[in-house]
Amino acid sequence: MQDAPQNPVPEKVTGIAHLFAATRYSSQGFLRLWHETAFRHELLAAALGLGLLVILGAPLAWIVAVAVLALLTLAVEALNTAIEEIVDHVSPEWSLAAKHAKDMGSFAVMALLFATGLVFAVALLSTFAA
To answer: Domain tally for the chain?
Structure first.
């Protein structure tokens, strides 16, 4: 006789129930990310940067551009964390492939941070030049 699985697979839901389930999954993802220091730093930097642009009266287009890049950065941070979790689960011992996967995820976040910082700097410069 087999024992019941420890973590049974949840039933698929459709219709409006799917919307509520997806919202719950996203909320759980956010709560998981909240434990990542990098995520909290990126969220704080985005809030401060966007707040500064609003206070300085930057054009709406610049505020939206920085907001979109900040959201993309947070999304890539989530993917990077997901990669790290899967790699650690599948390959608990050190491996070069695992290191490469983690390094590339980290690079993706860094590239978006640079892009966001560049657009933020241009937004500041254009606001002061106006």
So the answer is: 1
